Amino acid sequence: VSHRVARAFARVLVAMYPREFREEFGASMVRDFCETFASRRTAFDRARFIAAAIVDAVRSAAAERAASHTPAERGSSMYGVTEDIRFGARALLRRPGFVAAVVLTLALGIGANTAVFSLVDAVFLRPVAVTEPERVVAIFHALSANAPNSGLSYPVYRAMRDGSQTLDGVAVAMSHPINVAGPAGNELLNSGVVSGNYFSVLGITPFAGRLVSESDDGAHGASPVIVISHRLWRRWSNADPNMVGKTVKIANRAFTIVGVAPPAFRGTELADVADLWAPVSMLTSLGFGGLYAPEMDAELFRTTAFHWLDAVGRVKPGVTHDVVAGELNRLLKRLPPTERRLLNEEPAAIDPMSVMPITRSAALRDRDSLVRFVRLMFGVVALTLLLACANVANLLLVRSSERAQELGVRAALGAGRSRIVRQLLIESAMLAAVGAVVGLGVAIGTVRTLAAFQLPGSIALAELDLALDARVLMFTALVAVGTALAFGLLPAFRASRFDLAALLRNERASRGGAAIRNTLVAMQVALALVLLIGATLFTRSLRAGLATDIGFDARPLAAVDVDLRLHGYDRARMLAYYAEAERRLRARPEIERVALATHVPLSRGVQLPFKAKDAVTAEGKRNIRFLVNGVSDDYFTAIGLPIVQGRVFSNEAADGPNRVIILNEAAAKRFWGSASPIGRSVNLFGGEAFTVVGIVPTTKSETVTDEAVPTAFLPLVRQAGFGNPASIVVRSAAPAAALRAAQQELRAIDRGISLRRPRLVGNQIDDVLMPQRFGTRLFAIFSLIALVVASIGVHGVVSYGVSLRRRELGIRIALGAQSSHIYWTVLRASLIAVAIGCGVGVAVGVVGSPALAVFLYGIRPLDGAAFGIAALALAVAAVGATVVPARRASRTDPVTSMRTE
Amino acid sequence: MPAPRDPDTFLPLNTDTLMILLAVANEARHGYGIIRDVEERSEGSILLQTGALYRNLKRLRLDGLVAEVQAPPTDATDDARRRYYTITKLGTTVLDAEVQRMAMLVRAAKVVAAGRKPRLA
């Protein structure tokens, strides 16, 4: 992709040369440019090359043009660009205030766009740092027709790897959190378990030492090695080169650090970036606990039932993805039929094997919401840039009528209209160029401000590699050129059209430009209003979200998670740990109540399918997915949920035949409508039966936007068998102190257990409202900028209008006009523009706001209050900006005004 | 063709021109070949830009120091439309004169450097 961009860019540069030079050398130049560009390896070298190429093109093209014309042609031709630039620079430097205002306005607009584009660049254009990413694909093996993008099982991976002729290698990886005892003590890290060819297929070379290699693919448990990420290396050892060769402990076994991955490499997914990689042959030695227990070792590598591996392949040059997918499906058919059936016995509705470019699969799960989000951001910054253009165009219009005499003199001396237009456009280009450079600074600042936020799919902005690479710089350059044309063209053509005779009679410019100026003011008002409407919609949505009744009081609650499986605990030790934790925490005076649960509301939960044989509702005939929560006996009192019917758990047997379950009202209603559910039974996965003993109210469970999520509560003593991580929940009037006390006690039980995500449950509302908060912040920043820019614009135009009418107003005052009458005359003209702008803004808002519906919660996109508040705020600002010049006009001293003319 | 100019009137050559002449002195090269040769020869310090390169080539050809030639047969893989440049007889004379002039300058500078006594504080 970047090579196509380079080619297009080279063509733009070549277009600057005179025709005969272009015809003779153009093709060679484009070709040489592309080859030189391709030979620059790093983003920095490429950026430097691009910058030098622009300088060279401007200089060489200007010189060629100057040389290619005879003196007779020079008057009308492109001769003298250099002179125009010099002249323009001098003219601009004479007005530093004007230049500062324009540059700042443009820098905000261009910088915001650059910041958002750098995000697009990082998320969509180069999400994975591998060699020739355009040749790398993710490979999927459908689990069912509804889950086409599932991973591969080990035998299928082997079949693809060994059989494919269209791929230069197939590799697999699986990511999982892992507990490591390293230089920073016990900590939980993200691990990637990878096949020996993983790094070679992706074309990654080590930063230090070596990477996981084919030699690590031997006998299970025989290669206790890890490769650490560049970031982890810096954090662990402060970038000590002797780190390679040291050992860390994982699941009580020593693993040697054999190498460091290059800084840019972050795996093939945007979220959950791996901190370290280990060979897949070590899978069951890594202490992942229940799921990958040693006794399952042989089974995991032999069965086709578990699609547990993420596969990537490198496509041979020139082979299309369809051909690859066709071949992989043929390879699958060679496996025995039992090994390749789809789940749920669906007929072969789809081809099970499929491939997807790695750049697409990097954020697959949340791609839709990411795209929506980035569109929203682009919309906001594009509006801001448009507003900046309108504002600068107005400033230039005002300025060019002030310069009418200077330009008139040039015209009188024989400068053609095109020459004057060119002169003004060159000045615009210079302003845009400086604005773009300052804008890069703004972009860096914007990116830093946004770093605290997460994109959909838990992609932390702080973890993205938001570099200003060659592509981003090219984008900025293009935006700057477009901007210069957008704000410069109209003023340039208007300024070059004048009545020479009138000018030389020393008359000031006529009032003919008023219509254009007022149109531009209306446009600014409209754009600012659209942004303000967005800001009020998001703010009101955030308020609605914060004010939502989540069904219980989260404020006195705090929680911390432990994942005992990762520390090699078996079920008996887990239960002992939980009992000890409850006992110790109850003894602390800071803590009022203690409970354990596998899911605490306002975080992601696990859903499992349930069935009821005596269901009365239509949908109850099928499986219904319930969010499953394993809870201790005190859970409901600790959270503050009353029992509506039946009873809570009390000392339920860990094994025994009497299996009990508590449902929330939403879950019971889905199976039995309004009939009493107590004593009925439900089957998990259609098998194991549980008797309903109690009903609790429905609360919000994952986020505030949840609509009655059906939930099933099981006694934790049973749930412990599933091996989920557990949260320890404490209730207290001082939850922060209670949380500290809980952490102290838990460390005292076993210092080696990592305590994850200590948090105040009340604060989690902020986390689940991340999209609203991000949108509110985004719109707030840009609508504020828009409001200020638009106010300045209105003020500037009204002031200028007043200055043009000075003589007229002076005469009217001299003839006895009331100053209040003058005041209203001035005010009325601009108020009409503001009113039209508001009307257009509201209309655009009405048309555009439904697009925001997916981001909004608790209010409709056509929220009357939001529109009203925004319009009112804007009207106040715009009128405020008009009042000062209007008052000045009404106090015009007739004598002074006549004298100055 | 106008009468050949006195080689000395071309001197001194600017850096880009000199490097381009050196690049095509022993074999015919295309544009990117020249860019690469100059970058290697200057140990990476000079990266010729296409504008500067082709303006120089245009002038050098006009002055008769460089000529355009057929693609060498060795270049079978490459596109035949590539344009190759090589040095002319006059070009060689000018290059020799410039190199001699520079050698003289270097000698003169060495004499000065060698004769300079270390200053005592």
Strand portion of chain B: 5-15%
Q: Which two chains have the most extensive interface, and how many residues on each? A: A-B, 26 and 18 residues
Give me the oligomer status: heterodimer
Judged by helices, strands and strand pairing, the structural class of chain A is alpha+beta
Overall body shape of chain A = globular
Number of strands of chain A: 23
Q: What is the helix tally of chain B? A: 4
Broad shape of chain B: globular
Q: Calculate the mean pLDDT score of chain A and round it.
A: 82
Mean pLDDT of chain B: 84
Index terms:
heterodimer; A: 6-stranded mixed β-barrel; 28 helices; globular; B: 121 residues; mainly alpha; 8% strand
What this model shows, in words?
The complex is a heterodimer of chains A (901) and B (121). Chain A has 28 helices and 23 strands. Chain A is an alpha+beta fold and 901 residues long. A six-stranded mixed barrel of chain A has the order 2-3-8-5-7-6. Chain A has a six-stranded mixed β-barrel with strand order 15-16-21-18-20-19. In chain A, strands 14-22-13-23 form a four-stranded antiparallel sheet. In chain A, strand 11 (454-455) and strand 12 form a beta hairpin. Chain B is mainly alpha-helical and 121 residues long. Chain B is 50% helix and 8% strand. Chain B has four helices and three strands. In chain B, helix 1 (15-23) crosses helix 2. The longest helix of chain B is centred in the C-terminal third of the chain and has 27 residues, at 89-115. The model of chain B has no long low-confidence stretch (mean pLDDT 84). The chains are: A alpha+beta (901), B mainly alpha (121).
